[in-house]
Amino acid sequence: MEDENIQLANRTLNQERIKLNVGGKLFETTVSTIRSGGPESLLYALSNRPRDDRNPIFIDRDPEIFSVLLSLLRTNRLPSSARRFSKQELFDEAIFYGIEANLKSAISPPSFDGIDASIVANIRPTSDGVVSAFTAGDGDGSIWLAHGGQISCYDRNLIHDRTIRTHLEEITSIRRVWPEIAALGSDATSGLHYYNFSSGRHIGSSNWSDPNDPRIYKARVTAIADSPTSIFAAFECAHRENSVLVIDQSTLQITSELGRQLGSSAKSTVAGKLAWIPETSVLFGSSVTCGAFGYSGYVRLWDSRSGDVVWETNEPGSGRSSRFGDSFADVDVDVESMKLFKICSKSGDLGVADIRKLGDDPWVYLKDKNPGMGNTGRRGSGNIKIHCFRKQVLVGREGELEVWSRVEERENGVEESKDIGEDFYRRNYVDKAEDSERGIIKEIEGGGDRLFVSRENVEGIEVWETSKSSGAVSIL
Amino acid sequence: MPPPFSGSTCSSSDLIHPPLNPESNIVAINVGGHFFQTTKQTLALAGSKSLLSTLFDSSQSDVPFIDRDPDLFSLILSLLRTGYLPSKAKAFDLQDLISESQFYGIESLLINSLSNPSQFEAFNLEKSLILPLNGRDPPAAITTTPFGSVHVAHGGKITSFDWSLQRKTTILTQFSAIDSLLALSPSVAAAGATDFSGLQVLDLDIGHVRTILNWENVTRSSSTVQAIGASSQFLFTSFESGRRNSNSIMIYDLQTFSPVNEIGHNEIFGADIDSAIPATMLNWVAGYNLLMASGSHSGPSGVQGNIKFWDIRTGNIAWELKEKVDCFSDMTISENLSAIFKIGVSSGEVYSADLRKLGDGNPWILLGDRMKVVNGKRAGAGGKIESYGNQVFCSREGGTIELWSEVAVENGGSKEGGLRLEERVFRKNVMGRVKDLGGGRVTKLAFGGNKMFVTRKDQQSVEVWQSTNKRSS
């Protein structure tokens, strides 16, 4: 590390230099530093000017912010003097010089690690603050919140960008299907609706109808997913008949229908969760209902091209299930590692299945081994939510947030070749005891390197991040 | 290439830049457009590996240019000139200075100026920082390096704070709950648990297991770790078999981790309690070339324990102390004071025993005045005692920490002051201002650099006590 620095330093010693006059203050640096924003940047373009030492290149901008950005280019980290400026100011200035990518990489949080995460922000919309649904956007850490029929966008700095009002009274599912377009569904109003965020306008709707069956009418949307070309939405009619519609993303026209079912039993209720698995072009759908006799539900995988069911499981199932009476309370798919994870409703154990090796009973059960995880008796009851993010499994049990993470193997161990074994996962709390008292966890979703958590009837949404900073608090 | 500077647009600092004789010791450097003058000797203090000492190796006529921030360089130059940071460094984050000192290759000078063990002032410590730990597991083990980086085991996780306590990393281990942890370097630690087989040497930066050390016990059951210690050459581990019927201390080479020797192997038959007690504390006593191993056991007949000093080459016990009455609830050794110290579990009193006067009789000498003994109560249970520098630190019920120090007494002094001159004189003070007192029961005390680290029951954080820096306040 030190040697690298010295090499780096030696390189800078004999380099072509450049002088800049920014708002009256002189700066001297090397051409390679100024060009690190890439050939598209303004600074790169300036560095190509003929140089004259008597008349340094003049830039009519604030010298203080420039000195911060120059430090960023030199060291790839933001100096502490950056704190005098808001993130917005820094971004605006970085965009002017064309070095916003450098700034983004310097201030983005490190990779999310559930065993070492803390709340960094609580986003609270100013009106109708209880968040009914949210979508963590396109992975840059920005988030779109649906609250009281409005959608609010918070950018990657978690700064409020704008809010639009929709015609829906309550939005219960939201998905960002284009960078500027959200697909919305509601429990109370039929149809899937598209809103363009930059114009704030309603740009279309999709409704489920069938010319041969007049009963297919006024179907409401319960879940939305998207692939690079299609949008998938689970629709349910008033008489509980349901289906998943495939909608072309560019024309917003319905192209096909998957898995139409009557909805008369737990095995055929509408999917409450949909997810697209890109590696195999398979759509994942699941439904869980909780009744007097406990949880029941299904997991189904459809081939999105043929519309065939590739694999499905129902619980409580018949036959060989080794876990009779311990059906899942929630299930999610980890598209990164191609695994399905389920939380057992009674035992609280985590079940994992490899999507590439699904069979009659593909589940491997991971047991809780952490003695610090407290009382096991209350598990299995109440609200359980599961979300897979960055090869970790986040589980919300009532108000508690926990994470199952894979333990690193030996230095030279071949990790991927091994089968899933319970020894390789450890369960830990993400939160503190006092965090869990804020309310029942309603939804968990990761985006960028952030984890977003919403709670029942609690205003706003929590943002969790991992940090390299020690967070030391002075108590002098 | 144009000349280093010319023309009229130079700032005022450029104007006092006379042409220098190449033979002169005075040199000029251009850092980010500002000119600095210093001497070759000053730059040589940065060490031969540093960029600064190589600047003038080649006989260049140009003033060398370094593309870094000039304000930070002026601090770096002050550090080189004087050995400490000027007070204007407070305008910057320590993190800026650390990354800058790494660039110039002089981080060790910065560490030396800010976190040197010689700056530890026991009488001037105040509670100054709280290091929060994420998750819900309270810290179970804590270990430090000489320059103040600290590793904390909580549950199956280890969080490491760097020497500046500004940065942290957390790794997940295979253990469900770590009980023993020992830092071997700022980025390598040995960890063990009483419910998990094997000692693991872990790379704390990336979370990899470097090696797993197991004790091959006769019953072929698992080998759990009771204590870890180290000397400059060896790693010591106290193992107990999973069936709890045998225990042993293994000695490994600290570089290769290959076994060197096994000492104190006990197979337990019948009701011999003494051999059934595994060592739960291992300390290397460098001055005597002995390994101190101690352990205790709480049974229906009270707490019993032993303290053994092992010659690790021969595997013989050099001296042994059986603790039958008022056994230690915790004990420590101070080589600076040539003494061992304990908290008596029933009395709660602090005792010392002079290493130079160890004999057959009871070596323990009560420090301070005898307290009123409350019958049957284990007043000292849960107390922690540690030594660092010339002082002994001892935790008390209610979460207070006592500081015991030896009073230097002239040998020929009078008896009028009430001093018993045949004995060494130790006196205690309660640490902290009124607002710092109390808190939960102390679970661990550790020392590193110029700081004291305290963990408390049910608190997911580490308390840092340090003395105010003379130059920065």
UniProtKB/TrEMBL annotation, chain A:
- State the InterPro entries in the record: BACURD1-3, Beta_prop_At2g24240, SKP1/BTB/POZ_sf, T1-type_BTB, WD40_repeat_dom_sf
Specify the signal sequence span: none
Q: Which residues form the Potassium channel tetramerisation-type BTB domain?
A: 18-102
The annotated pathway is: Protein modification; protein ubiquitination
**Sequence ranges assigned to domain At2g24240-like C-terminal beta-propeller in this UniProt record:** 139-466
| The name this protein goes by in its record | BTB/POZ domain-containing protein At3g09030
Give the record's GO biological process terms: protein homooligomerization
Record the organism.
Answer: Cucurbita maxima (Pumpkin)
PANTHER family found in the cross-reference section? BTB/POZ DOMAIN-CONTAINING ADAPTER FOR CUL3-MEDIATED RHOA DEGRADATION PROTEIN FAMILY MEMBER, RE57120P
Automatic annotation (TrEMBL), chain B:
User: What InterPro entries does this protein's entry cite?
Assistant: BACURD1-3 (IPR045068), Beta_prop_At2g24240 (IPR057441), BTB/POZ_dom (IPR000210), SKP1/BTB/POZ_sf (IPR011333), T1-type_BTB (IPR003131), WD40/YVTN_repeat-like_dom_sf (IPR015943), WD40_repeat_dom_sf (IPR036322)
| Every BTB domain range | 25-121
Q: Name one Pfam family in it.
A: Beta_prop_At2g24240
Q: In which pathway does it act?
A: Protein modification; protein ubiquitination
Q: Name one GO biological process term.
A: protein homooligomerization
Q: Which CDD domains match?
A: BTB_POZ_KCTD-like
Q: Entry's PANTHER family?
A: BTB/POZ DOMAIN-CONTAINING ADAPTER FOR CUL3-MEDIATED RHOA DEGRADATION PROTEIN FAMILY MEMBER, PROTEIN BINDING PROTEIN
This protein is called BTB/POZ domain-containing protein At5g41330
Q: Which organism is the protein's source?
A: Cucurbita maxima
